[in-house]
């Protein structure tokens, strides 16, 4: 009798161990085992993007398409270019066409909750790609640790400028990532602020992440502070570019440290030329492959248990958070070039 009890315990333990998988295991399995789609109705993933106006998002589109198709699955991709109504309409059309799963990069974190509701009503799961959708029952969120991105920026700037006047050029207030990044930045800066070592002399959001709006913000910061600025933290490389242009007008480009994120080619080139101090690299090939594998996994009707979660105002959203990487003039070759994100010729211009 005792032998039978032990036997059942071993069987139960085996089931529990088999059920305890993480996202890495799911991804590896999905990569190794392409989907065996039905002959007449292959799986189809919808990818509703916010914009293709920035270099970074064009890379995401191309990498995601390649990753999904490598699993033998079709993908339909749309881009709303910052238009909330258009993004909702594009997603609705894909839902009506009968996609098996929707991946969304929201322009407006709150407005796109309507898309999630419509998808779920049609029995379609939704993955938020890189940006979180607010106030909706999202099935999965996959991104980089955006609060960590802000921490990395602030740590790099404090190392460079431990005392002085700081400008913060935020991202779009409609993007939850912009809020997470700002939280990370000020988490690191606050002790220095409390000590009186640094002063935040300008802090403003940048509508639609537009470089021209960042230029206007930075110009205002310089004017109101009589050009007495010692460091600039910009929410991404597009806004950093706008800030650098405003500094250039005043003949200050290259003199005031500027931080960004995304490791866009123009930003990496600015680091080489000395007009931008650092950026934060988010290996989007890893992101696109991870989301593609998980999208296929869920579209096939499989379950997935994420290790992390983030509250989006509605619920604790199952989340997969990837690690960002600081990039400056000292590690360009070991990071973005080694990964094939940019070529050495493009970065250094053949030097």
From TrEMBL:
Q: Which residues form the signal peptide?
A: 1-21
Enumerate the InterPro entries for this protein.
Bact_Solute-Bind_Prot2 (IPR050555), Peripla_BP_I (IPR028082), SBP_2_dom (IPR025997), XylF (IPR013456)
Which residues are in the Periplasmic binding protein domain? 45-303
Which SUPFAM superfamilies does the record associate with it? Periplasmic binding protein-like I
Q: Where in the cell is it found?
A: Cell envelope
**Pfam families xrefs:** Peripla_BP_4
Q: Which UniProt keywords apply?
A: Signal
Going by the entry's taxonomy, the superkingdom of the source organism is recorded as: Bacteria
What's the chief localization of this chain?
A: other
> By its UniProt entry, which NCBIfam families does this protein fall under?
xylF (TIGR02634)
Q: What is this protein called?
A: D-xylose ABC transporter substrate-binding protein
């Amino acid at each position: 009798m005792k032998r039978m009890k032990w036997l059942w315990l071993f069987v139960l333990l085996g089931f529990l161990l088999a059920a305890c998988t993480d996202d890495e295991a799911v991804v590896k399995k999905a990569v190794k085992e392409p989907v065996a789609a039905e002959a007449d109705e292959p799986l189809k993933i919808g990818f509703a993007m916010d914009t293709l106006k920035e270099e970074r998002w064009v890379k995401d589109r191309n990498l995601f398409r390649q990753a999904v198709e490598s699993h033998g699955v079709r993908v339909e991709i749309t881009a709303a270019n910052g238009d909330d109504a258009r993004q909702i309409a594009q997603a609705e059309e894909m839902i009506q066409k009968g996609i098996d799963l929707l991946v969304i990069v929201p322009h407006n974190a709150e407005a796109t909750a309507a898309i999630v509701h419509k998808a779920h009503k049609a029995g379609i799961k939704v993955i938020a790609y890189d940006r979180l959708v607010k106030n909706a029952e999202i099935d999965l969120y996959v991104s980089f640790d955006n609060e960590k991105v802000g921490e990395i920026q602030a740590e790099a700037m404090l190392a460079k400028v431990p005392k002085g006047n700081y400008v913060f050029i935020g991202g779009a207030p409609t993007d939850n990532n912009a809020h997470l990044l700002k939280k990370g930045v000020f988490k690191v800066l606050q002790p220095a602020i409390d000590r009186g070592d640094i002063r935040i002399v300008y802090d403003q959001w940048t509508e639609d992440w537009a470089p021209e709006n960042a230029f206007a913000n930075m110009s205002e910061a310089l004017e109101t502070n009589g050009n007495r600025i010692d460091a600039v933290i910009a929410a991404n490389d597009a806004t950093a570019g706008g800030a650098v242009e405003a500094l250039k007008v005043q003949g200050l480009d290259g003199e005031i440290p500027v931080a960004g994120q995304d490791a866009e080619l123009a930003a990496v080139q600015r680091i080489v030329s000395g007009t931008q101090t650092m950026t934060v690299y988010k290996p989007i090939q890893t992101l696109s492959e991870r989301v593609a594998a998980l999208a296929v996994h869920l579209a096939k009707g499989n379950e997935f248990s994420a290790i992390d979660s983030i509250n989006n105002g509605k619920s604790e959203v199952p989340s997969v958070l990837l690690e960002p990487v600081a990039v400056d003039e000292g590690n360009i070759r070991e990071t973005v070039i080694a990964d094939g994100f940019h070529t050495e010729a493009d970065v250094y211009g053949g030097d």
